[in-house]
């Protein structure tokens, strides 16, 4: 999607749902006045993603062989994908939220991760050898990331750290249902926000990238015990 297309997509979202017309999205996606050829032959399917993990897996597979520099910062491509999957990313009665959910905030990782598609893709790619260790930030549906994502994915040094993600997933994801445990998004008593705070404190005296998940888990205070099993 070119700059004109991005501007029109922003206008479409600003007027949605009162006057947002799905036909307008089709025009933005296909009309050369709003979108341009990426120069590669990639077919995007109208997939249904039950989780951020599924979205990340599909997008990683889609772009795995596309060795084009600047993929992460390609505003046009990620905005085009937002428009393509708009119906899924914005179910009925759901608020659209901030612009960063739809057009990636390139250059600001604390907001970039909030993009509903680029965020899961980035996390999946960082943990492509074992994506499920990052379920703590990939288990929820794409349109409702949740507070665990808000607390952990906004900090690049945490979300790309294998041990940190393994610990977070062990603490907050039910291994049977692969869904967040009750209370995992709490602001205190071992919740995700407290984990982010504790990890930032530990980072002052420990090299978190040098620790195994077992070593890191052992450093957590007793308030996290209720989530350990």
Structural description of this entry:
The protein has helices at residues 3-15, 22-30, 52-63, 75-84, 86-89, 109-112, 118-126, 147-152, 156-159, 162-172, 192-202, 213-219. It has 229 residues and is an all-alpha fold. The longest helix is centred in the N-terminal third of the chain and has 13 residues, at 3-15. It is elongated, with a radius of gyration of 19 Å. The termini are far apart.
Sequence-ordered SSE layout with sheet pairings:
Layout: H1 3-15, H2 22-30, H3 52-63, H4 75-84, H5 86-89, H6 109-112, H7 118-126, H8 147-152, H9 156-159, H10 162-172, H11 192-202, H12 213-219
Summary of the model, kept short:
By secondary structure, the protein is mainly alpha-helical. The chain has helices at residues 3-15, 22-30, 52-63, 75-84, 86-89, 109-112, 118-126, 147-152, 156-159, 162-172, 192-202, 213-219. It is elongated.
- Tell me the fraction of residues in β-strands, as a range: under 5%
- Estimate percent helicity: 40-55%
Reported for the largest beta sheet, the result is: none
User: Looking at the structure, what is the overall shape?
Assistant: elongated
What number is the mean pLDDT? Answer: 89
Keywords:
single chain, about 230 residues, mainly alpha, 12 helices, about 45% helix, about 0% strand, elongated
């Amino acid at each position: 999607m070119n700059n004109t297309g991005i501007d029109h997509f922003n206008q479409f979202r600003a007027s949605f749902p009162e006057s947002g017309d799905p036909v307008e999205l089709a025009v933005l996606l296909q009309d050369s006045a709003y979108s341009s050829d990426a120069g590669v032959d990639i077919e995007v399917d109208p997939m249904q993603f039950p989780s951020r993990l599924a979205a990340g897996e599909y997008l990683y597979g889609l772009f795995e062989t596309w060795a084009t520099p600047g993929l992460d910062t390609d505003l046009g491509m990620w905005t085009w994908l937002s428009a393509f999957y708009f119906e899924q990313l914005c179910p009925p009665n759901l608020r659209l939220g901030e612009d960063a959910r739809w057009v990636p905030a390139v250059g600001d990782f604390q907001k970039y991760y909030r993009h509903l598609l680029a965020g899961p893709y980035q996390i999946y790619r960082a943990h492509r050898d074992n994506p499920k260790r990052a379920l703590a930030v990939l288990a929820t549906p794409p349109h409702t990331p949740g507070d665990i994502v808000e607390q952990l994915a906004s900090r690049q040094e945490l979300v790309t750290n294998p041990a940190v993600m393994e610990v977070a997933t062990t603490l907050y994801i039910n291994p049977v249902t692969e869904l967040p445990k009750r209370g995992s998004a709490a602001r205190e008593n071992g919740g995700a926000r407290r984990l982010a705070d504790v990890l930032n404190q530990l980072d002052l005296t420990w090299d978190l990238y040098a620790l195994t998940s077992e070593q890191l888990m052992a450093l957590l205070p007793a308030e996290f015990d209720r989530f350990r099993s």
